[in-house]
Amino acid sequence: MELRVFFYITIIVAFSGMGCKSAKSSHAANSSPIAVSSDFDSGSIDTLWESKPNFLSGWPIHWKQKSSSDDQYYWFYFKLNNVVNKDITITLDSLAGIYRGGPHLIYTKATQPVYSYDQKNWDRIADVKYDTKLHTLTFRNLFTRDSVWIAYAHPFSYGQESALIDSISGKPFLTIETLGTTQQRRNIHLLTVTDTSIPDAGKKVVFITTLQHAGEYCGGYVVSGLLNFLLSDDENAAIARKTTIYKIIPMMNPDGIFHGITRFNGNYEDLNQEWDDDFTDTLHLPVEPEAACVKKWIRGWRSSGRHIDLALDIHSQGQQGAMNLLHTPEGMLADLTPHFNKYWPVKYIPMEFSGSLNDCLAKEFHISSGTFEIPQSRIKNEAYLTIDDYYNYGKGIGLGITDYFLKNR
Ligand SMILES: [Zn+2]
């Protein structure tokens, strides 16, 4: 429970003690103390203070899983005020945690945080040092506006999911449903895209999910790219709509995302360990409402005589990853990756995660299922990934799936 006190943390940084002289001209150095806040959608920082002028020190919130010893720590997203024309150095420590009982080190020398002056257009901070022994990240940047948002990686907030749904609501070929609500009464949406002038019989059914884990935000952009492609005038989108029914959940964990939690939902549980039976998870705790309402929909869909041909759940390895991976249980979907590789690079590695959505779909419902792990840094030593790259991955998923089904008819 004590973690709840960290919600909406606003930290006004202690004045550095160097004296605040009034500026003599508009070009004089900005000597006002730097103010830090995180009391906004997806915002998160435990402690951050101006330890000396233009040097900030602190650490991200460590979130403890309710039903295990797991300790998740990597997401941070804060706003700085009074930073115009300041060359600022930020050091974050305590960058190590526990995942599924083992050490979890998701920061690397390749980690580059992002910053934005409007929470829409993001750039990387390239001047970064990571100490692999102390697990400390130090990054430095000269800011040109008075206020700046800084995050571990491109955020995709709860408000962005709402804006996405508003932006496509009412479009042809789209139906929007609410499957259920979270503990804190936020909606779990199911979006259906298909051409209803073509009978459903004979169409393939694809189930796409993302954002089970708060902090793995690139999935929100990938699904946005997929949706915008499927709803577009592109002739390949028309083929996809005529041949396929897409069922898409764009945000599985709105509570965790709104509160800036790393990985867990608002009840401090890992949703992707909640799918192994109807009433309890592997630790015999009640199934979380996000998983329960989705599983109820799957059962209802199937009991009405419908099927699901392919399911893909989109995650991220954070900035640790250097390759897009497709993990599948039971060696499923080995022939799918070449179709994606025409549009974006994906490596196929069979792997199972107990209690995961994919394991449940594969073993309980016998649906061909995979989990994408998409980096929030870069692919090998290439350029760092951008939001446009993630949009293109989404389009590539749509194109690759159409090719796959055409080949396998
Ligand atoms: Zn994940």
Question: What features would you highlight for this structure?
Answer:
409 residues; alpha+beta; Immunoglobulin-like; Aminopeptidase; 2 domains; eight-stranded mixed β-sheet; six-stranded antiparallel β-sheet; 23 strands; 21% helix; globular; disordered N terminus; binds zinc ion
Question: In terms of topology, how is this protein built?
Answer:
Layout: E1 10-11, E2 35-37, E3 47-52, E4 55-59, E5 63-64, E6 71-72, E7 77-81, E8 86-92, E9 97-99, E10 102-104, E11 114-116, E12 123-124, E13 127-131, E14 136-143, E15 147-151, H1 158-168, E16 174-181, E17 187-193, E18 204-210, H2 218-230, H3 235-243, E19 244-249, H4 254-258, H5 289-303, E20 310-318, E21 325-327, H6 337-340, E22 347-348, H7 357-363, E23 368-375, H8 387-407
Parallel strand pairs: 4-8, 18-19, 18-20, 20-23, 21-22
Antiparallel strand pairs: 1-2, 2-7, 3-4, 5-6, 7-15, 8-14, 9-10, 11-12, 11-15, 13-14, 16-17, 17-19, 21-23
Helix pairs in contact: 2-8, 3-8
Zinc ion binds next to loops.
Strand order of the largest sheet: 16-17-19-18-20-23-21-22
CATH architecture of the largest domain: 3-Layer(aba) Sandwich
Q: Please state roughly what percent of the residues sit in beta strands, choosing from under 5%, 5-15%, 15-25%, 25-35%, 35-45% or over 45%.
A: 25-35%
How many β-strand stretches? 23
Number of helices: 8
What form results from the Cα inertia axes?
A: globular
Radius of gyration: 22 Å
Name every ligand kind in the structure.
zinc ion
